[in-house]
Every structure is written in structure tokens, then in C-alpha cells.
Automatic annotation (TrEMBL):
It holds the Pfam family GFA. Belongs to the Gfa family. The lineage of its organism: Bacteria, Pseudomonadati, Pseudomonadota, Gammaproteobacteria, Pseudomonadales. Transmembrane segments: none annotated. This is CENP-V/GFA domain-containing protein. Coiled coil: none annotated. InterPro entries: CENP-V/GFA, Mss4-like_sf. PROSITE patterns: CENP_V_GFA. The keyword rRNA-binding does not apply. Residues 32-129 form the CENP-V/GFA domain.
């Protein structure tokens, strides 16, 4: 079962940065690198654990074409090369992408500068731990994940973060 992650708002992305479930293991400050599809934008991210979460809200699905699978950064990503194009997707959040090839680079909360980065963007074969799905009531019936995770409805996400 899940022991991690942050909450997702009803319109997509992460509602705030307060943990839903506290991590039991000490922070590990893992540094990962990634590039966009064309290679013009490179980023370095630091994460405190190997947890991955999925958001099934309609905005995340519209942005990605499916569920948004992310790692949560412990600080803003370091961007090199082409500066990302940034879109204000709501009053509280931004989504960044490569202006040349369109690769999704990160989701950012404006209020506290929290960043979530799509895990598929990162290089290497890290042993990620997919352990949380949120907004499960918005998940379409045409896909599912085989492994067991903690599942939260949008209402549960909001209740745990109010």
C-alpha cells in the first residue's frame, strides 16, 4: 500500500505539497537527468525518494493522453539548453513543455514552487515504486494498472489536505 505522495486538484496536477502519507524512509536526495524528445531542453531533478504517483483527473489526461505518472521534486528542476515554454493551466498551476518538440517537462504549483516531473522523461533504469493513484473516479474504464497501489478519490484527496 501507499506511504507517499501529494494531493492532486480536481483540474489536474498537484493541489498542494503537503504529504498525504508521510514517508517512513529517510530522504535519499537522488539526482536524475532527462531530456526532451529533440534534446534541446535538458533537466536535472532531485527527488527524496523513488515513489511515483498517477493522476487520472481530466486535465492531466488531456495534457498527457493518459494518466500523468510523476516523481515529486524536492526542489525546482535545473533547466539547461532551450528554456521551456510555460502554460498557465489554472490560477494555481503551470505546465511546461519544450517549445520545439512539445515534450512535457514539468507541472509547477505557483503558490509554493512545487514541481512534479513525468517519470518517463528521466534517463536510466531507476527502480521506481509506483504506489499511489489519485482521482480514481475519473479514470476511464479502457485502461488499468496491474500492480496494487493506494487509490484515492478526488474528494479523499481534498479531505486529506483541508
Amino acid at each position: 500500500m501507499c506511504t507517499s505522495s501529494t494531493a492532486c486538484d480536481a483540474l489536474g496536477g498537484f493541489y498542494n505539497c503537503r504529504p498525504i502519507f508521510p514517508f517512513k524512509e529517510p530522504p535519499m536526495a537522488l539526482e536524475k537527468h532527462g531530456t526532451c524528445l529533440c534534446g534541446d531542453t535538458r533537466l536535472t531533478v532531485t527527488v527524496d525518494n523513488t515513489h511515483i504517483s498517477a493522476c487520472h483527473c481530466s486535465m492531466c489526461r488531456k495534457w498527457t493522453g493518459g494518466p500523468l505518472l510523476v516523481v515529486h521534486c524536492s526542489k525546482p528542476p535545473l533547466i539547461e539548453g532551450r528554456a521551456p515554454s510555460v502554460y498557465d493551466s489554472s490560477d494555481w498551476a503551470q505546465r511546461a513543455f519544450c517549445g520545439r518538440c512539445g515534450t512535457h517537462l514539468y507541472y509547477r504549483l505557483k503558490a509554493n514552487d512545487f514541481h512534479a516531473v513525468p517519470v518517463g522523461l528521466l534517463d536510466g533504469d531507476q527502480a521506481w515504486d509506483f504506489d499511489l493513484q489519485i482521482f480514481v473516479e475519473e479514470k476511464p474504464a479502457w485502461y488499468c494498472f496491474a500492480n496494487q497501489t493506494k487509490e484515492l478519490s478526488g474528494q479523499e484527496v481534498f479531505e486529506q489536505n483541508s
